[in-house]
Write a structure and sequence with these properties.
Blueprint (H helix, E strand, L loop, with lengths): L1 H10 L12 H6 L14 H4 L6 E2 L5 H11 L3 E5 L5 E6 L11 H4 L6 E3 L4 H11 L3 E5 L5 E6 H8 L1
Parallel strand pairs: 1-2, 4-5
Antiparallel strand pairs: 2-3, 5-6
Helix pairs in contact: 6-7
């Protein structure tokens, strides 16, 4: 229907009409503006901390461990130059030989949620799986931030 709607707008005289081919769910998943009944509903993007530490595949765990201690954090998201999530490091993965790289010890399939995800569903997942954090990404896999269980419990119960 988007093609039909776009052509109808053109026929009505609109000059700048764009058809967003990926669709409504992709639009919402990337946290773009929405209207309607659920437009004001809280989403994962509303609770995500965006100041999460990041590192690269080639970074030595000794350097990562030091950065996390200085920042008072316990996770590091492994990303590429486009900030696409490649993995996740937790504090317990940083206890090995100092020259080992992030690529050698990271979890390569961390749980992620889209920006439009329900914070209640994310909290339910964290409780059921006894995890304290999940990542929030765009539909292209780029890091947006991290949801912390403590934040969700304090804000939504």
């Amino acid at each position: 229907m988007s093609a039909r709607a776009a052509w109808r707008l053109i026929s009505l005289g609109f000059a700048q009409v764009y058809r967003y081919k990926p669709g409504k769910m992709d639009w919402l998943a990337d946290g773009l503006p929405a209207e309607g009944e659920e437009a004001g509903s809280p989403r994962a993007k509303d609770y995500a901390r965006q100041d999460v530490p990041t590192c690269r595949l080639s970074d030595a765990i000794a350097q990562i461990r030091q950065r996390l201690q200085q920042a008072g954090e316990d996770i590091c998201v492994v990303v590429n130059e486009e900030r696409v999530v490649l993995g996740l490091l937790t504090a317990d993965q940083l206890d090995g030989h100092p020259q080992i790289t992030a690529a050698e010890v990271m979890s390569s399939a961390p749980r992620t949620y889209r920006l439009s995800a329900s914070p209640e569903k994310a909290l339910d997942y964290m409780r059921r799986n006894q995890v304290d954090t999940v990542l929030v990404t765009t539909t292209d896999g780029q890091l947006f931030g991290v949801l912390k269980r403590e934040d969700l419990e304090a804000n939504i119960g």
